[in-house]
C-alpha cells in the first residue's frame, strides 16, 4: 500500500504526481543517471535525466491505472525500457518503489515480447488504440507532453514527427478524450 495519502489514487486531476527523484530517492536517482551517463555512447546528463523522468512516469501510470494499462505493449522507446531493466536489478529498491512509492502499491512485473510477436497478437488497429490510451492519462497526471518527453514516447513522437502534430494538438487529443478517472463513460466510436 502507498505510504501516504499524497500517493494514493484519487478522482481528481489536481493532485501533483511525484517527480522521478521523489519516487526513487536522491541517491538511487543519481546512481541511475551516473550509470547511463558513463556509457560510451551516452547522450548528455540532461537527456538521461529526462529519460529517467519518463521511465518513472511510465511506471507511475501503470501503477495508478492497472485496469486500463496493464498488459499493454510498452509505449516508450528502448532507452526507457533499459532504465526500467536497471531499476529491476536493484531488487530491494525496485520492490520498495512499486509497493511503497508508486500509487498502486503493487509490484510491477516486466515481461519481454518481441515486436514481431506483439504485432501478430493484437493487430495494427488494436496496437494504435492501445498506444493512444496513454495520452489522456499522461496529461492528466503530468500535464501536456513537452519537448523533453516527446522523444521517449513512441506514439507521441510518431504523431509529432510523422503526422506533423504540434505538442498543443497532441495535448488537445487528451482534452477531447474521456476524463481518465470518470467511472463508466460510454465508449467512443471506432474508426
Question: Which short descriptors sum up this protein?
Answer:
single chain, 191 residues, mainly alpha, 11 helices, 56% helix, disordered N terminus, disordered C terminus
Commentary on this structure:
By secondary structure, the protein is mainly alpha-helical. Helix 2 packs across helix 3, helix 3 packs across helix 5 and helix 9 packs across helix 11. It is globular. The N terminus and C terminus are likely disordered. Helix content is 56%, strand content 0%. The longest helix has 20 residues. It is built from eleven helices and no strands.
Helix content: 55-70%
- How much strand content do the residues show? under 5%
- What global shape is seen? globular
What is the terminal-to-terminal distance? 39 Å
Largest sheet: none
Which parts are unreliable, with pLDDT below 50 for 5 consecutive residues or more?
Answer: 1-14, 179-191
SSE pattern = HHHHHHHHHHH
Taking all Cα atoms into account, the compactness measure Rg is 16 Å
Number of E strands: 0
**Which structural class matches the secondary elements?**
mainly alpha
* Overall pLDDT score: 82
Compute the number of helices. Answer: 11
Amino acid at each position: 500500500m502507498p505510504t501516504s495519502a499524497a500517493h494514493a489514487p484519487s478522482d481528481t486531476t489536481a493532485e501533483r504526481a511525484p517527480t522521478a527523484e521523489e519516487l526513487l530517492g536522491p541517491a538511487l536517482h543519481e546512481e541511475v543517471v551516473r550509470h547511463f551517463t558513463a556509457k560510451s555512447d551516452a547522450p548528455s546528463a540532461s537527456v538521461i535525466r529526462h529519460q529517467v523522468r519518463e521511465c518513472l512516469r511510465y511506471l507511475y501510470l501503470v501503477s495508478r491505472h492497472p485496469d486500463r494499462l496493464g498488459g499493454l505493449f510498452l509505449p516508450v522507446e528502448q532507452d526507457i525500457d533499459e532504465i526500467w531493466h536497471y531499476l529491476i536489478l536493484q531488487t530491494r529498491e525496485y520492490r520498495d518503489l512499486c509497493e511503497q512509492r508508486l500509487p498502486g502499491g503493487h509490484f510491477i512485473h516486466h515481461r519481454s515480447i518481441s515486436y514481431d510477436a506483439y504485432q501478430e497478437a493484437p493487430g495494427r488497429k488494436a496496437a494504435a488504440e492501445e498506444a493512444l490510451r496513454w495520452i489522456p492519462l499522461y496529461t492528466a497526471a503530468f500535464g501536456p507532453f513537452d519537448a523533453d518527453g516527446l522523444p521517449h514516447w513512441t506514439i507521441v513522437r510518431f504523431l509529432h514527427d510523422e503526422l506533423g502534430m504540434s505538442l498543443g494538438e497532441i495535448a488537445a487529443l487528451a482534452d477531447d478524450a474521456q476524463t481518465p478517472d470518470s467511472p463508466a463513460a460510454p465508449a467512443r466510436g471506432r474508426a
